[in-house]
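Provenance

Sequences were taken from public entries as deposited. Structures were produced by running a predictor on each sequence independently, with no templates supplied. The record for KIB1-4 beta-propeller domain-containing protein from Eleusine coracana subsp. coracana is shown for reference.
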Amino acid sequence: MDIFALLEFPDLVRVGSVCTSWNSAYTSICSFEQYKCSQAPCLIYTSESAGEHVAFLYSLVEKRAYKLTLPELHIQRRYLIGSSHGWLVTADDRSEMHVVNPVTSEQISLPSVTSIEQVTPILDEAGAICGYHFSRHTAQAIMGQSSTYSLSALRDHLFHKALLFYDTSARNYFVVLIHNPFGQLSFARLGDEKWTWLRPHSYFDDCIYKDGILYAVTLRGTVIAFDISMTVVTTKIIFDSRSCYGNERVYIVEAPWGDLLQVRRPEIWISELPHRHGCACCATFKKTSWRIKISKVCLESGKLVQINSLDDHALFLGHNRFPC
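Predicted structure for KIB1-4 beta-propeller domain-containing protein:
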């Protein structure tokens, strides 16, 4: 078991197919927190031609894709809103969220989307949920008119990012959800019946759990610490940024040497004018990044200190828990 836990994921899949006992060890390691070394990131994707129950895992190390068959999951219909510890946080076609292990096909349902502060179910004559009422209120104000969405359409407008963390004191996992309107923060432990809204701040873009504290960063770069271990959540502003909102993504990650790092990645829109049917009037747009700024978050002084090197480490950014 200890040797298997040191393997890269593609090699682990191979040894799991050798015999029954090795497959049992492989399945156990694919559970939460069983890896003993940092894994090179893999990309997961689906294809309409492959069917609803098939996903592909692309290894950046081997530069090849592995086919994963998930017979009990319509994985091709799911929206992927986050990944951590080898698990995926997905939203199904009713906008309900589930934590999924793409290797073992294990699935854990999260609290209903209707328990999120801004979401109210709409019931039909039989009492079944047929849609959702979405309110655009924050702890400070009502930020716009409410909307009504179908069961599947809500996920297009509600979710931004979800991350899975392990709480050693509670010996349980919890999911942090960044969602609309305007970057709200909610969390739920596995087994909870509802989501807990972390008010009053807004415009969150990323978060990380370290040493029993949840650290979240806003689009302005403000870093806020939440102690969610008690019934009443306590909040502390670590760094209060005065910068204006811009077209950028802001991340907070833990470096291999233990420091918290704030990463700012400005984005610009590039317009492309493809000629279709002899006409260039249908413009498409794509985002691109032109620089990355990395700063150490000094928890004691409440300051940011810019750094210019990660030494021999690589940083991967996306809608996941970022490896570095």
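The longest strand covers residues 260-272.
The chain has three helices and 23 strands.
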